[in-house]
User: Fold this.
Amino acid sequence: PGSVSAAFLQYLRHLGLQDFPCGLGSWNKSCLNACRSPRAEPAGLEEAVPPGEETPEALLELLRDQHSPWALPPDCSPQDRLLREVAVLAPELLRGSRVFQVVKSLRILDKGVEEVDEGVLQFQQLEELILSANHISKVTSAHLPRTLKVLELCCNAVRDLQDLCAWPPPELQHLGLGYNRLCGPSQEKHLTVDFWPNLVSLDLSFNSLTDLLGLVSQLSTLQNLRILVLQGNPLALIPTYRGFLVDSLPKLSILDDIHIGPDERQQFHGLARQPELIRIEGRMVVSIGEMKGLPDPKAFQQLKVGSEGPVITYSYCVTYEF
Assistant:
């Protein structure tokens, strides 16, 4: 689909909100009209359901019963269930642009989305936007609803945060940028309280961030930050990485999915005042236990010392790619 808006329209068609047992049709037309009519009978005086029609309760049961052919799969999202049930009880709410007013959580996963387009602004009540496993390389903050509290962009191709931070949603509490292509040190300047005053959770895992000192100096301005994920970055290979973060960010509760307890905080107390312990170099030792597919050197040891037979030597080049 290319854009978030196009993917959402495709998603709506997949849900079949205008098809039985949802929407408005011969299966519920008079029932819904009676409910809307000002002359409808008082509660308790239910009229008989016309032949060929079903009550809203019966239609809902077709959606909820797992043995029904119209039931959603067990692993579907709450968003799917909500829209289907609204399409039964009040289908007029999902007609035209009205559908954008109903959606508070939008999940579009692995749909080939490349652009967060301006059409996303139609979701005026949107609080959660999850666009994981797509092909998004840039996010324009002006296209994000100001009501947004959760933005998840895991497994995309985001390289730079400048466009995202130009005018970010002020109420955002979680920002997920794991498994992208961020590399320092130019990105750290976008991770301060000036851009994210209410951020509680930040996922930067499995990028290419290297400047631990620079990153910590910016993250320390985020007074509400409680959850941080940095594993998978080169800076996480520093021996004092966890201890330095724990001591530098005293309000942090969870680092790399591991709870920070009082004992650990006491153990690393004072480490933040010793930045010289952070080395910018690392050493890797590679041990080779077995090699296959090479000639056996024992076969060449059969030549006697002083033999005039031909001497054959072999040399090999081993390359490691990181």
Remarks:
- The CA atoms of residues 27 and 311 lie 91 Å apart.
- Residues 39-46 have pLDDT under 50 and may be disordered.
- The longest strand covers residues 105-107.
- The two ends are 34 Å apart (CA to CA).
